[in-house]
Amino acid sequence: MAHVKKDLLFITVIGHDQKGIVARISHILYRHGINIEDISQKIMDSYFVMIMLVDITEATCSLEKLNRSLQQIAATMHLTIQVQHEEIFKMMHRI
Amino acid sequence: MSITVEEVYETARMILRQNLDIRTTTLGLNIKDCVHTDFRKFRSRVQQRITPAAKRLVDRARTLEIRYGIPIVNKRIAVTPLALVMETHATARRMVEMARTLDEAAAEGGIDFIGGFGALVQKGMTRTDRILIESLPDVLAATSRVCAFLNVGSTTAGLNLDAVNLLGPVLHEIARRTPDGIGCTRFVVFVNAPEDNPFMAGAFHGTGEPDASLNIGISGPGVVRSVVAEHRTCDLTHLAEVVKRTVFKITRAGELIGRELARDLSVPFGIVDISLASTTSPGDSVAGILESFGIEKIGAHGSTLALALLMDAVKKGGAMASSSVGGLSGTFIPISEDAGMIEAVKAGALGLDKLEALTAVCSVGIDMAAVPGDTPAETIAAIIADELAIGVVNNKTTAVRIIPVPGRQAGDMVDFGGLLGCAPVMRVNPFSARAFLQRGGRLPAPLTSLRN
Question: Of B359, B363, B348, whose CA–CA distance to B424 is shortest?
Fold first, then answer.
């Protein structure tokens, strides 16, 4: 099977742990045809940090729209949500 | 995932809490081919060159901000030095009209500053150069987005003192014609000016450049400061290493975004300028980095060594991260735009003398220095000449952006607003170099320029 290069994003969620973070974000992603490749959760600097690696190759919405939807969740749940293409991390953290 | 959670979090923290951003994306545009014997057609061509390109720049930058989550704070345009293209339309009135065209084209394009209204006079001035210089007060009073510059010296040409001597009266006049002298904040005097500097007010599209090029200025004093604060006691070698690795990451972000933006705009990618540039945001201060090093206040004895270490580490980290480093690529120490600098001046830790010393090891120069409005013209020229002599002799860029604020005395605070910040008016040495400067002429090129 031919290997299709995936279009991957990192979604970084920072804030206080509470019920529904994973559920609500996963729901948005599912609605827009976005697959979750990996999830990690950790406490860092006393913050709850969740990082999702998602595949937007077959996404049905624009990046701008996805960002807006996630910012709505961020606002209601008092979280910070960053959405970034994986390319920036590869550039910054690898030679 | 091959990128670790720690790395993702580190990046998020840089953006969210440490003020990492792309400070400027500057599109350099050649306007030599816009020249026309009919002045109206000339101006129209210039406007048509600038406005659509500006709109595309703003639009594409926005797309990349969303894709990479890193703010692109400023989108700017720099054009061919105006003195070059105005040779056949060299009147004071037309200089102002062309400046207005640039101003309006920038406004229509959604650009807040457009650079290039200047001349290269390191060896001597043409008639047009003189007219441009003398028109600067009118130009800066009639516009709000146009930025002006002069290159008055180089290591190979020496320093053009005749040009410097014009600047005292010109700066006084600019100051007189604009509120609190704010027009002076849009004028920079250089030696060894880089042709691809993306930062205002000194940006211009040099004559050695192609039709267009996209240059990036990244910035992250906040990021560097945060990292240094986690290494309070390590030795200088280790400290330099920490800074270097951090600047590497910052620069990589700029490299990626710059190259992609250039591709989107179908223009050649120029350079990444790896300067550390402060903003007025808390924590985003170059002075703050030195304080994290262990200097009580910038300006204290020890500051020059500290800045030398910082500068060298920035260059090494940045050079590794990008295939094309250029522009100024140093450390900005602008007085009004850096909270730590302002505090240091107010506390009496930092004055013009130490600033001058610091510029010997960092890239920029005496930047955003407010001086009393009654500072004699020849003293202003002497401050400029001293700073530029450092650049000529040491084969580096130095520059001066000085504001003689009408009606203000040393110790006053002047609020320029927005990005320009608040400047404490600095004390100036009351003794005069008038008789020396009156001699005029040119400082001959130093021996170090004979490298063939």
Answer: B348
Quickly tell me which residue has 């998020």 as its tokens: B12
Q: Is the pLDDT of residue B337 over 90?
A: no
Q: Tokens representing B346?
A: 């107010």
Q: Report the alpha-carbon angle B235-B241-B242, nearest 5.
A: 90
For residue A74, the chain B residues in CB contact (below 8 A) are: none
Locate A15 and state its tokens. 């804030």
Asked whether the beta carbons of residue A87 and residue B68 sit closer than 8 angstroms, the reply is yes
Name every chain A residue with its beta carbon within 8 A of the beta carbon of B11: 12, 84, 88-89, 92-93
pTM of the model: 0.93
How much is the ipTM here?
0.86
By Cβ distance, the residue of A10, A53, A67 closest to B66 is A67
Say if residues B359 and B398 touch (Cβ distance below 8 Å). yes
Contact B12 A92 (CB under 8 A): no
* Cβ contact B253–A88 (<8 Å): yes
- Cβ contact, residue pair B69, A83, below 8 Å: yes
pLDDT tens column, B74-86: 999 999 999 999 9
**Closest Cα to residue B201, out of B115, B267, B278?**
B115
Helix (H) or strand (E) holding A11: strand A8-15
